[in-house]
């Protein structure tokens, strides 16, 4: 049992240390919404992964703030819950907006784990003390720059390199990287930039021994992915188009892919992420933990989720110091030799740097029943 007495909301804008170009745009900073839920002197914290503009999926920071203030938080503030699933149930009548609901659900998991004094991963059923990680590398100006940035991360020990691709920038960088590194685990992510009309181009990628091709087709599609999968040897990995365990079941039953990228917030929180993990396992499909350029709060949640057994491929949860000069938490989250240690304290095991937040937050407010 835990009680939710008050909530605190922040929005922070963090400059990214690198320019991150994907098929849908260029990012140089990150807008980070944070939610803390407090009860009986204990606090649970979560990060929103919706963005300023709906470029990846349909949720936005402004939309999430409205829903949290006016709709979701009033349903949980002042109440006592048996477990985080019960918090989820309190928001169960609402459709979509899974990233916004996930902020409440994930903060509740952290709060509950801290109440029980156990690490979040342990509470979720995970056993690992470190998790394998790779990196997601944005589109570079040319092939030489691509090979150079890959080399830097291979030397740092990352266990998988993922290259962002788009029409007109796909076979060339993949060929250049594969020629320079014959035996690395290599993948690509198109963020929905192709259609079935591009089958020829995508089929050319079969020559490079990619572990998977991530989300080549529309963000809300499963059927065309299944058709494409029949035409390709390389397994497809679904990201954008899996928003729930039911989506995962339908995708895998249709043959729309063989691998699932699980982003906790995209599917509505840890409970649903665990159900996606279980569905994929039942189909014999490996999963891995995706990233949304999270600050330390979201990153710590991702690391804990990745301790579940079917997270069989390296995730995008790379070192926080790659992204930020100063993080919103006190603890460093640094990979060594491609392994990210799981923070060992109760809950996520990380704590907010409130001094830093006080200096840089664009929004900070307290909500009560
Ligand atoms: O498709 O996985 C994606 C970042 C923003 C939006 C979508 C994606 C990504 C990433 C970044 O690939 C992964 C990371 O957090 O490093
Ligand atoms: Mg992706």
Outline the secondary-structure elements.
Layout (H helix, E strand, L loop, with lengths): L1 E3 L1 E17 L2 E15 L2 E6 L13 H16 L2 E3 L2 H7 L7 H19 L3 H5 L5 E3 L2 E3 L5 H13 L5 E4 L6 H10 L5 E4 L9 H6 L8 E2 L8 H9 L4 E3 L6 H10 L4 E4 L7 H13 L4 E3 L6 H10 L33 E3 L12 H7 L2 E5 L2
Parallel strand pairs: 7-8, 8-9, 9-10, 10-11, 11-12, 12-13
Antiparallel strand pairs: 1-5, 2-3, 2-15, 3-4, 6-14
Task: Provide an overview of this structure.
- The chain has 369 residues and is of the alpha/beta class.
- The protein has 2 domains: 2-117 and 354-367, 2-Layer Sandwich (Enolase-like, domain 1); 123-341, Enolase-like C-terminal domain (TIM Barrel, Alpha-Beta Barrel).
- It is built from 12 helices and 15 strands.
- The protein has helices at residues 61-76, 84-90, 98-116, 120-124, 143-155, 171-180, 199-204, 223-231, 245-254, 270-282, 296-305, 354-360, and strands at residues 2-4, 6-22, 25-39, 42-47, 79-81, 130-132, 135-137, 161-164, 186-189, 213-214, 236-238, 259-262, 287-289, 339-341, 363-367.
- The strands form 4 sheets. Strands 7-8-9-10-11-12-13 form a 7-stranded parallel sheet.
- Helix 9 links the parallel strand 11 and strand 12 (259-262).
- Helix 2 packs antiparallel against helix 3 and helix 9 (245-254) runs parallel beside helix 10.
- The mean pLDDT is 98.
- It binds 2-succinylbenzoate and magnesium ion (MG).
- 2-succinylbenzoate is lined by residues 56, 136, 189, 191, 239, 290-293, 316, 318.
- One of its GO terms (biological process) is menaquinone biosynthetic process.
